[in-house]
Amino acid sequence: MTTNLKIATFGGGCFWCTEAVFQEVKGVEKVVSGYSGGNLPGRPTYREVCSGLSGHAEVVRVTFDANVITYEDILVIFMTTHDPTTLNRQGADRGTQYRSVIYYHDETQKEIAEVVIKELTQYYENPIVTEISEAQIFYEAEKEHQDYYRNNQAQGYCSFVITPKLMKLRKLHADKLKSA
Known about the structure:
Layout: E1 5-12, H1 15-22, E2 28-36, H2 46-51, E3 57-65, H3 71-80, E4 89-90, E5 93-94, E6 100-104, H4 107-120, E7 131-134, E8 138-140, H5 148-151, H6 156-172
Parallel strand pairs: 6-7
Antiparallel strand pairs: 1-3, 1-6, 2-3, 2-8, 4-5
Helix pairs in contact: 1-6, 3-4
């Protein structure tokens, strides 16, 4: 079977969480943590992004096989594994670097994102504030931020923040996950 590789880029709070979620999804070939959407020139550092002054969001770039999973399914997983109703915040993580954002790579992705958000609005008590923006330069995060959950599962943040998100993923989207 031939592959039909596509790219999706999202920010849903801390990139460690979003990366861990998509690493479990069937059809996802690669997940890279990084930064996008900033206004400072040059490659940003984690420290600069965390300061909130660079304008970048923590994002993941997901390479997926569209013959196995659709962009719409990827979006639904993204939208239901973080809180798309909190502006510039996910849990205790606060600042524009933690904004909920979908960076579309073509007009079809933009249209699908608009439809998915409209369809999911009814399931949330508060309005969805997820930004839909054209994809910008993606900067890969430093090596220590790649595969973060896999390499640091015993760390407190992983145990208390990421593990519950993965449990939610497994409950809501079991049919979309890679086999154990």
